[in-house]
Every structure is written in structure tokens, then in C-alpha cells.
Amino acid sequence: MTPKDVPTPMLDEPSAPVPIGARYSPARVRLPVLQDATDFAFDTSIFEIILDCVEDGVYFVDRGKRIRLWNDGAQAITGFSRNDVLGQPCGNHWLCHVDAAGHTLCAEGCPLDRAVTDEQPYEVDAYLQHKLGHRIPVRIKSWPLRDRQGQLIGAVEIFRATIVGRRQEQLIEELSQLALIDDLTRLPNRRHFDLQLDRRLAELNRFGWPFGVLMVDIDHFKNVNDNHGHHVGDQVLHLVARTLLAKCRSLDTVARWGGEEFAAIIANVREEELRTVGEKLRAMVEASGLRESSSAPVRVTISVGGTMARPNEPATDVMRRADDMLYAAKRSGRNRVCI
User: Fold this and answer.
1) CA dist., res. 245 & res. 26, Å (int)
2) How many other CB atoms are found less than 10 A from the CB of residue 94?
3) Measured between alpha carbons, how far is 4 from 228 in angstroms, rounded to an integer?
4) How far apart are the first and last CA of the chain?
5) Same domain, yes or no, for 122 and 187?
6) What is the pLDDT of residues 183-194, one digit of tens each?
7) Would you call 173 helix, strand, or coil by DSSP?
8) In whole angstroms, what is the distance from residue 333 CA to residue 69 CA?
9) Residues 6 or more apart from 190 whose CB is under 8 A from it?
10) Domain end point (choices 134, 161, 188)
């Protein structure tokens, strides 16, 4: 094996320790050493057991890009089980990666293809689609895999939820304890949003810290309920909620405003940056879809209206302008952003 066939070390912060399923504390667990023990056959199942102890998602594809290995970490992050994906092409519209602008990477920019083409590990931030349809921010590392003779046999990918995603999960847990969370979408509710808006306005008046507000409405949501049933409508609400949450930063606030409407406070931005955030949210929702086993994916779009907050104005004025911009986006044909 030549030096170029050896992947460079993949450096990252360590995963959280895997808990030991024993009655004793880790300090008292001992592996007995048997002096006369015979060696055993180290078959491939041992590697699968080891990989299932890793919290990161790991999967391997052969040269036909069919998934041959899928660990427990991959299932925990994406919701897809081994039965869902083993033997399936990785670009089968199930595990499709998209970038921050919502562009699909499977057709161009696939991390596995990049690693094989460049003959070295490849690293990128992207968004994976969860089995429930929403997008998850992940850090991806991939590299080509060769056998002992140096022949290419496939590629391997490791992915983990980013720190932003973990912080958002912690925020959800904290809000649940304070009854400031929407039961269906698990987003902060309107009461929490109003508290955050008052706080941001006070900071704007005192320190001059700018922020904007976005109002989001799911286009033709009534058609989803009428054509697919309210249970699918609830899943679409959850899909959009998780996608919006994944695309915003931990210092922003994304909340369910009511019905099929959502609201977001985007901190420390100017008007053009607020427009960019709105466009990214719109593109990310458009690139997502709720997949049911017996039918085509249920896809929706959103209309977005936004405004910058102004010093010394009440919260009602901010929300009225954002709402006016939302309806302007709908009158312009929907699936649009108006600031």
C-alpha cells in the first residue's frame, strides 16, 4: 500500500463516552486475562459491534454506491434503520445531502464522490434528511476505502450532528420544563416568542443591537389536510418546524406562532442579511419532503415576510410590519421572501 492510500488522520473533538451496561462502575470493570486462551477468528461482525458503540453515524458504500454497512449511530441521527437502507443506493432520495442554500449534493458535490475523486479524505458541513422529513445539520467526513491490494472497493462516511443541533435540543428540554413549548412541533410557543421579542427590543433601545423578525406561513396547507388527512398535516408542521430550527443559529428564536404560521427572531443582522436568512429558510423547506412508504413525498413551500426592528417602537408594530410583508409574499405568488 502506497502512502497516498493511507487516509490522513481525522481530527475532531471526541464523542461523549459510551456508558457501560454493567452493574459496576467503570473503575471496577475488568477484562480477565487468560494466559492459556486460544486465539479466535476476528470476523467482520466484530467490527460491526464496535461501530455500533460509536455515537457518530457511520456507513459504507460499495463501488455501485449501494449501502453495505449502517451503524446504530446512523439510525439514531437519521431515523432510518438498517432494513430501510441496506442494499439501497445512497442517493435514493432518502439520504440526500443538501448544502446551506438547499442545493442537492447527490447530483453534484457528493462527499463520497469527492473523496474518491480527490484520493483523500473530504470534509464538509451539510444537512441530512431525517426519516420524518426535516433536515439535520451535520458535519460529514468521507474517504475512499481500498483493499490490501490497493484496489478501490468503496467509500465510507462518518457524520455527526453539529454543536448547534445539540444546543437546540438542550433548549427544547429546558423550555419543556417551563411550559413554554408547543406540544405538536416542540418549538417554543407564542408566549416564549413574545418574551424574547420584548428582551430583544430592550437590548436594541439600550445597546443598539440590531435584529429582525421573520413571519413564515406554509403555502396551501389546507390542501395538505384535505388531500392527505390531518395526521399528515401534523407531520408536515413538524417537518417545517425542525427544518427552520436546524437552519437558524442558537442565538436566534424560532417559534410556532399559531396554525401553520411560524415566527423567528434573527439576532445581530442588517436588512440584507435578514433577507438572506429568509431565502435560506425558504430553500431548505422546499428541498425537504415528508416521505410515506406507499406514495410520493409530500412537499410544501413557505412564504416569508420580514422586517427590521426599530428603536423605541412597541412589539406590536414590529409584528404588524412582518405580517404585512408575509401577505405581500403570498400575493406575489407564494414561495417567496418579502422584506
Assistant:
1) 37
2) 17
3) 53
4) 57
5) no
6) 899 899 999 999
7) helix
8) 44
9) 255, 256, 257, 258, 263
10) 161
- Looking at the structure, do residues 223 and 174 belong to the same domain, yes or no? yes
Torsion of CA 332, 264, 249, 333, to 10 degrees: -10
Give tens-digit pLDDT for 293-332: 556 789 999 999 999 999 999 999 999 999 999 999 999 9
Q: Answer yes or no: do 330 and 296 share one domain.
A: yes
How many domains is the chain partitioned into structurally? 2
Half-sphere exposure of 243 (CA within 13 A, CB side): 39
Question: Same domain, yes or no, for 191 and 334?
Answer: yes
**What is the residue range of 12's domain?**
3-34+41-161
Sheet holding 57-62, edge to edge: 67-70, 57-62, 152-161, 135-146, 122-129
Instruction: Return the half-sphere exposure (C-beta side, CA atoms, 13 A cut-off) of residue 261.
Output: 15
CB atoms within 10 A of CB 99: 16
Q: What is the CATH number of the domain that holds 117?
A: 3.30.450.20
329: which 3 cell numbers?
409574499
Phi, psi of 7 (to 5 degrees): -65, 140
Q: Which residues pair with 113 in a beta bridge?
A: none
Distance CA 114, CA 99 (A): 15
